[in-house]
């Protein structure tokens, strides 16, 4: 196998052979390659098209800061867009494609945008698509959306799983370069629990990219030896392929571990990625530094790269982007790249150093005081144009240009709370400053110590100091000999002699001109600059471009760079896939599914289910021959009202209230009185919010002097319990009362209809008398059923029929429904679902969630008289506010259409029969509507202004959105059995 | 965030439900002459300090204790955590 640009040595295993494809062409690489290094080895410089102008682009960096080489990986459901080729680990069979081009990378139709660049400058959208207004939604937005974006998504479900996990440590070390390794070693030897997180798939950080010696070893060998010692320590955990994405409160860090991204398919049972929440007592940030470019005309051609990246490709991956490389630098570090390349046999055609006093270099011509003013090469760099110190212009052949403008410490994580970076003149960059996240120390290049020795020293010291805080004694390890060069750099951001476009942000196609335009149009604050030009947005978040942008703006405003300031760094440090954030909470696991005790039985009956507050409730039970849900529902209603029906009501919240002060407590919780409720009786109750709005209703059954069972609506079970605990602990802390939720502990069934008692007498053991005299309406008690099983019986009714609710321990719930149905066979019993339940409660005029809608008071609901004025209860003081008690306040009424063929539309508004239809003349609104099989008519419940006094009035019921307009008569909300005779039968 | 529960030690804030200002413990006397005004203030008027804030958190996914947490709203530093019941008693809500 021959790679045109592969060099000798490096940390890739050149004996291996991995096949991969890019845009359909087959290539080979080695174990240890990234997609970017393997493409460069094969002589591929062109890797993508730019976002706006569709300019040909190549790889610029060798790490996660990459702005240009964004590719699509894999195909089918595993297709992943916008992945940086620089961090995509090569594996055998990797399938990658370029993005944002049509029909191909070399010939891209949208390249035409580049010709219109004068129009597509900063603020283009804001200026151009202003008018006509109607065009935005219909024309501009769809066209822009189609043209925007880079990669494409598969629109298929992700076949892989993602996980979330928790890790704890004394010291979290972020980054495994020289500083991070020394920190981990210091803490590891001291016995502290250490987590060392490394973004790369190998440890060692920059040591793998340099030729520096540490002690008498190559830097990468030294790193390997330290890692070997750390691996042997049981108190140290090394997480590679793990990016710490954010620093959160109290020492908590978020980290994404890419467990399987380097494999075609995750190993069986393994997630693709894990989102870790790391609880650290202390942390050392050793995240290194990112090199920054220098902007000049046409500085975005494939082959123009960062000098440190070119050096990394040569030393670590044994790859050069081209046989002929030139260097453009403002500092000594650029010269290192030249030296390392020449040591690997690459021709350095020249070192262009802006400094007039640039040091000389053996083996390559140094152009001191010179600048690169332009470049040539449509799909890849061919030459650069220099302006020498003398002013003379000269062309220099090169297929790659290694650019170094200095290094920016990776301060990102120091700013995720309140950190504010401070300017450091020596390296002309921001270093961490202000208030760092709790427990964080910064070491090495991330703190502005750019030498290897500085990193080793500060890494060890930071760990020792952190452990001192925790009372753990640590010894500083012996410092090996290491590179300790002084920084020599002349700040230089862009070439002023360039006339054309000089790119600052290659990912967003922002040029020096765009920044000048933003300045001219007064978008001068860095935050405005960012939004107006999009500088520093998207996947790289300006890691290589922000500083350049700031420097240009600072120059234009006449301020210094620190006065200009940085935009705020926010998590995540690098892009995080949605799957990792979602973890296992996808599809049916997005939230829990709660099944009632009769679920299996109901499934056997072919029930149709509906989700209510995470519960799966039977909605109706279709019988053979029923083709429409209403047939099933109406049959269930008729059968129940004519004989008997059974409904699973387990989902209602149940709260057990016990203690000597239980009655006193309920008296405060409910608007109506409970103190005098007799043992063995149930009472309906309404709960108010403190503002006087009714928020829940239910029943409380008194089983003993000091024991009540409260029921809540299904939807509010959690909220009511929370509020009751608040009242118990915070408002009346010394009442002798205890609460526990028993919703899941009891299976509960409503048995309703004229034959309800007859049915239950076959279930309840004979020693319990449940005759009407012994167990009247609103009675309750503890009984046994089916020969000794403990149960609770409540004679309460939501349907308006003679009805009971019977509760048994949940594990008997399945047996109970089967027993009830068997015992009811002789009465033609029917199970009924939530729809029939709803129809019957509307027929009876009972309020439910539609009426308890967060805006209605007890008065509105027709329950005003229940609110006791003689006691302290939550909500009673503010329920008396004038505005809630006006004479024409909304009141709950019933509606029947004048024409029996009409249906009352739910949600419709009520208007006077001869008045206008307008918001001003609005009389109220319909909350619930149903077809009543008993009345053989549509019926509705509604809130009507002054409704209690308007019985018999004809109103218009209108829904202008749907063109509905019918007439209905105001009637009592109690359509069925208004006197309650059936309840008491 | 981590909340140092007085009974259970440090717990992740995810286990809790947030309510708001611990002044909600000071529910007015319903029989006061100006009860309506007091309740209005109690329910609707809150301080919104940049700095220390005493607030109510409910350990819903835990032991169901209501806690009074003193938190700096600027830095999220938590300087004190007490059982709300103890706070309520200290503030004179014993009956």
UniProtKB/TrEMBL annotation, chain A:
The keyword Iron does not apply. Residues 891-977 form the Aminomethyltransferase C-terminal domain. The keyword Ligase does not apply. GO terms for biological process: tetrahydrofolate metabolic process. Residues 599-871 form the GCVT N-terminal domain. Residues 499-584 form the SoxA A3 domain. InterPro entries: 2Fe-2S-bd_N, BFD-like_2Fe2S-bd_dom_sf, FAD/NAD-bd_sf, GcvT/YgfZ/DmdA, GcvT/YgfZ_C, GcvT_C, GCVT_N, Sarcosine_oxidase_asu. This is Sarcosine oxidase subunit alpha family protein.
Automatic annotation (TrEMBL), chain B:
This is Sarcosine oxidase subunit delta. It comes from Aliiroseovarius halocynthiae. GO terms for molecular function: sarcosine oxidase activity. It holds the Pfam family SoxD. Gene3D superfamilies: Folate-binding superfamily. GO terms for biological process: tetrahydrofolate metabolic process.
